[in-house]
């Protein structure tokens, strides 16, 4: 499915997504300024409003067990310590909302926010994304897949009617927003009317739920599924895919807007100078084809996600 098709699906599904955030879509919170029009918050020009923490707090999007990823990221965080000259601590967040709130409250300085929550983090918490994982050729992204298990009685998307379908959370692109748009536009299927939606909280919960036959179907990010297969958490044959979407941008990495400019540059340097060879980061993420950080901008790389959100009536402003 190409980008134009997914935007058409999103437009047809307008109004089906409602989040806890209120306000105008694409509008930065009133605390922030965007004088250069790049859609992210400007660094305060007043040095007294800039932050230079003694310890940098880092969090990775809560797609799976935080304990697993504390070990995976440890070598990278030690590298960041050398580059920045500061202690760096891993913060194990349990939900996208908690991660956004932590940065909004000033308790989180550097983070990877997942595809769907990235715009909320930018507009509500002052997140500035600058990097994304990619393969050696610079190719990036993941697909949303709708999965089931053998013998579920579901062989095609239409068979989900009258059954339960697991989503992750309303902030997730692949875990809720994109599949909702596709189901509405391509199959005239609406949560609550045609099937019972349930929310698992995270992609690994949805994948395990299908593998263990707790959910007849689920919408998930296939990058998470591939890593779980590689680790042996789930096995080939436990899960069947009945739908695969276009490619979406994956987790965006960045920092809080109000960090001192010198520290921002050091953080960028830490990402782009990290040696992946022999690292726990490569061991984990090469399972889904990711072996380097590439520079990105929120304005360009999240354009398709913002358009899907706008068509679905999603707001990025916080209460």
Automatic annotation (TrEMBL):
Q: Which residues form the signal peptide?
A: 1-27
Q: Which UniProt keywords apply?
A: Signal
Could you name the Gene Ontology cellular component terms for this entry? Answer: ATP-binding cassette (ABC) transporter complex
Any keyword Repressor? no
Which InterPro entries does the annotation name?
Answer: PhnD
Q: Which Pfam families match?
A: Phosphonate-bd (PF12974)
Q: From what superkingdom does this record's organism come? A: Bacteria
Family annotation (PANTHER family): PHOSPHONATES-BINDING PERIPLASMIC PROTEIN (PTHR35841)
Stated family = Belongs to the phosphate/phosphite/phosphonate binding protein family.
Q: What is the protein's given name?
A: Phosphate/phosphite/phosphonate ABC transporter substrate-binding protein
**Species of origin:** Nisaea acidiphila
What taxonomic ancestry is recorded? Bacteria, Pseudomonadati, Pseudomonadota, Alphaproteobacteria, Rhodospirillales
Q: Which gene encodes it?
A: phnD
């Amino acid at each position: 499915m190409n980008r134009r098709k997914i935007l058409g699906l999103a437009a047809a599904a307008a109004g089906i997504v409602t989040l806890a955030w209120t306000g105008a879509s694409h509008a930065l919170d009133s605390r922030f300024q965007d004088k250069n029009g790049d859609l992210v918050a400007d660094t305060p020009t007043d040095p007294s409003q800039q932050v230079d923490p003694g310890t940098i707090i880092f969090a990775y999007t809560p797609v799976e067990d935080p304990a697993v990823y504390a070990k995976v990221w440890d070598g990278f965080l030690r590298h960041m310590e050398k580059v920045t000259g500061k202690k760096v601590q891993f913060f194990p967040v349990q939900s996208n909302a908690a991660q956004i709130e932590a940065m909004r409250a000033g308790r989180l300085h550097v983070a990877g926010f997942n595809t769907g929550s990235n715009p909320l983090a930018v507009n509500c918490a002052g997140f500035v994304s600058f990097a994304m994982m990619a393969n050696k050729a610079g190719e990036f992204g993941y697909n949303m897949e709708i999965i089931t298990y053998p013998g579920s009685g579901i062989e095609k998307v239409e068979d989900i009617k009258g059954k339960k379908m697991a989503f992750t959370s309303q902030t997730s692109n692949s875990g809720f927003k994109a599949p909702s748009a596709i189901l509405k536009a391509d199959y005239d299927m609406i949560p609550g009317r045609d099937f019972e939606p349930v929310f698992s909280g995270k992609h690994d919960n949805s994948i395990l739920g299908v593998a263990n036959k707790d959910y007849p179907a689920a919408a998930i990010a296939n990058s998470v599924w591939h890593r779980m297969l590689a680790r042996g958490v789930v096995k080939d044959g436990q899960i069947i895919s009945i739908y695969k979407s276009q490619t979406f941008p994956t987790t965006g990495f960045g920092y809080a807007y109000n960090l001192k400019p010198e520290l921002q540059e050091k953080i960028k340097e830490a990402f782009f100078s990290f040696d992946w060879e022999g690292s726990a980061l490569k061991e984990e993420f090469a399972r889904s084809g990711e072996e380097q950080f590439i520079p990105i901008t929120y304005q360009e790389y999240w354009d398709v996600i913002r358009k899907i959100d706008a068509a679905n009536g999603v707001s990025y402003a916080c209460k």
